[in-house]
Write a structure and sequence with these properties.
Length: 284
Amino acid sequence: MTPVLVRQHLPQAGPVPRADLGARARDWSEIQERMLVPLYEAVYERLDVGFRTRLLALGCGSGLALLMAARRGAALTGVEPSSPQRLALAHERLATGASRAHTRGGVRLTDSLAEDTAGSQTPSYNLVTAFEPIGCLADDAEGLAGVLTAATPLAEPGTPVVLAGWGPPERCATSAVLRAVAGRAEPPGHQALRPALRDDLEEVARRADLGPDGSGRVACPFGYAGVESAVRGLLSTGLCDAAIVATGQEQIEKELTEALHPYRRPDGTVWMPNVFRYLIARTP
């Protein structure tokens, strides 16, 4: 059977030199991934994630959200096909973190859903998450819908599926910074980044034949020790990759530094207020 892969919702890392991919993944793990901790916590609390949870995490990155679920006792499957470097970091993180957790079902990390989708299999998951926020890229809603269509048959009927998105531009400083920088490098008529739309998540649910069943908003401020750390963290998201192809990384780093100036505090730290939205949908 043809393997079913989960596409990462951020741009592929094609323009990043191979030698830099490890550093990019490490920046994601050490700087950027923690910015979404309030989102993970809010969802896990609302859905009472614990020993009875069998979680399928799509686009699990370097595993921070998985580690938090493991500490609640959940059985975990994390899928990350787009970045072997992030997946390797998830293995490192879960090897130490999960051993301290009291999870009963264990942890499985993979770059493909092929094993789960091969042949007929009794649905084995009762929670599916896609925490990587959509709503900045022009085609990310379509991409995520395809991922969910492949993954949700592995879940029990009525399973909650959690989707996450960037908040409205007026409440999401970081997305405005990224659009301002990337937009300068976009060719005429091309729109790699766009403002989040109010119904982005509902549109994904509709395309994947999922029924919306509640939503919420979570404050996730992005705080950095300094401008250099902020630039590295934002570049690790991949959202500036198209601009890097067009103008070069040095130029994008310079423009990010300038765009971050309004968010720099007197002590040199950088603080950007953001609000992210999540949608809980249900499998048929």
